[in-house]
Amino acid sequence: GENVEQHPSTLSVQEGDSAVIKCTYSDSASNYFPWYKQELGKRPQLIIDIRSNVGEKKDQRIAVTLNKTAKHFSLHITETQPEDSAVYFCAASNYAGNMLTFGGGTRLMVKP
Amino acid sequence: SAVISQKPSRDICQRGTSLTIQCQVDSQVTMMFWYRQQPGQSLTLIATANQGSEATYESGFVIDKFPISRPNLTFSTLTVSNMSPEDSSIYLCSVGAGGYGYTFGSGTRLTVV
């Protein structure tokens, strides 16, 4: 089955700096890669996703890149703000509607 | 994206008892997923629930411990049976309406004492 690894497990940045979280996956059949933000005591919220036919996607301060050959994808957050502090999870799925396999999570702390 | 109502939001249960968690979706979906999130950990898939067939369980999870019902395309329940303190976790249901954009229920925080 699919295995998703995520690094780093914790990340501390100064407000205004950029943050990068990286994930690798094992199943070359995976074709959908979402990122979730989970604040304390709340459900995971989808913040951005990318499909395997696209190399990069951007939404305001958030971007995701995908390298299918290397089987890794990354989340980039620019101009970080204290409200970006949360746990971020990457995930992978091998076809539409199928289960997601999650990475281990990254605790991002943005220091004001 | 689909909206999921999950209940209860939290419960404290005695060991040896069972708890049933319900998820109601505002649209029809083929597959519903049940995840467990242990304290400070990531999400682990328990099982996939299809309407009209038995749920498919992941390695380490068995039907006797986590029976699932899926009576129609908008509703599912997960029961945590014969609970022990190790079952204390957050349980979440999820759907992938339209194939992408998976959403989650608000979660059930279970504490077993």
Textual characterization of the structure:
The complex is a heterodimer of chains A (112) and B (113). Chain A is an all-beta fold and 112 residues long. Chain A is built from no helices and eleven strands. Chain A has strands spanning 4-7, 10-14, 19-25, 32-38, 45-51, 56-59, 62-67, 72-77, 86-92, 101-102, 106-111. In chain A, strands 2, 4, 5, 9, 10 and 11 form a six-stranded mixed sheet that branches. The radius of gyration of chain A is 13 Å and the shape is globular. In chain B, a hairpin with a 7-residue loop joins strand 9 (89-95) and strand 10 (103-104). Chain B has 113 residues and is mainly β. Chain B is built from no helices and eleven strands. In chain B, the strands form two sheets. In chain B, strands 2, 4, 5, 6, 9, 10 and 11 form a seven-stranded mixed sheet that branches. Chain B has strands spanning 4-7, 10-13, 19-25, 31-37, 43-50, 56-57, 68-72, 75-80, 89-95, 103-104, 108-112. The A-B interface holds A 32, 34, 42-44, 46, 49, 51, 89, 93, 96-105 and B 1, 30-31, 33, 41-45, 48, 92, 94, 96, 98-107.
Report the helical percentage of chain B.
under 10%
Shape of chain A: globular
Please tell me how large the radius of gyration of chain B is.
13 Å
Main pleated-sheet profile of chain B: 7 strands, mixed
Oligomer: heterodimer
Largest sheet of chain A at a glance? 6 strands, mixed
Order of helices and strands of chain A: EEEEEEEEEEE
- Proportion of residues in extended strands of chain B: over 45%
The tally of beta strands of chain B, per DSSP, is 11
Q: Rg of chain A from C-alpha positions? A: 13 Å
What topology does this entry show?
The complex is a heterodimer of chains A (112) and B (113).
Chain A: E1 4-7, E2 10-14, E3 19-25, E4 32-38, E5 45-51, E6 56-59, E7 62-67, E8 72-77, E9 86-92, E10 101-102, E11 106-111
Parallel strand pairs in A: 2-11
Antiparallel strand pairs in A: 1-3, 3-8, 4-5, 4-9, 6-7, 7-8, 9-10, 9-11
Chain B: E1 4-7, E2 10-13, E3 19-25, E4 31-37, E5 43-50, E6 56-57, E7 68-72, E8 75-80, E9 89-95, E10 103-104, E11 108-112
Parallel strand pairs in B: 2-11
Antiparallel strand pairs in B: 1-3, 3-8, 4-5, 4-9, 5-6, 7-8, 9-10, 9-11
